[in-house]
Amino acid sequence: MTRRIAILISGRGSNMATLINAAQAPDFPGTIELVISSHEDAGGLALAREAGVPAIAVPRKSYKGKAAFEAAITERLDEAGIDFICLAGFMRVLSSDFVTAWDGRMLNIHPSLLPLFRGLDVHEQALDAGVALSGCTVHLVTPELDGGPIIGQAAVPVLPGDTPDTLASRVQKAEHLLYPAALERCLKGEIGTEPQMVQSGEILMSLR
Ligand code: GRF
Known about the structure:
Elements lengths: L2 E7 L4 H10 L6 E8 L5 H8 L4 E3 L8 H14 L4 E4 L8 H6 L4 E5 L11 H8 L3 E8 L9 E8 L6 H24 L8 E5 L2 E5 L1
Parallel strand pairs: 1-2, 1-4, 2-3, 4-5
Antiparallel strand pairs: 5-6, 6-7, 7-9, 8-9
């Protein structure tokens, strides 16, 4: 069964773009049907539309509370018949009611090797900790922030002289490799079968 996927964003949408691109392959086990942004000026909205994907803003600031904001998102998801969600730089913490309703059907990408460095300012945290590797994680979303089951991770080196920006851009290259691969494997139900490892330049990716 091919899944009908929505991507939730708040910003530039580079991960969103890689997911849209990957899902254009004829054998991809899902189609990207909708992009929703919590910010009306998110760059990703235009990118999605250019790629032919319906993209709408559901601005957080237009709603008094989280419940009304999430109800508006749910209405849009239902209208589009969505059955799987990818969070890709969505800068709002979703309520446990929302998350529970999408249990096992919502992925997120986080720019660290979880469980290290949850939350924000992740690259500063990694540099401050003096780690020699950093990377990114795709995980199922659970009510615990950045705490859901790990689907896959990709590691990159931390290099001498790195700043949060240079590390972020190296990690983003890894994100763009990891997220489409993790989504595909997850949708195909291959998680937990044969682990898959890919080395590409300085990126080492491992999917469960
Ligand atoms: C990524 O670094 C992702 O890991 C984090 O937010 C960022 C989104 O970047 N959750 P983009 O909008 O996909 O370029």
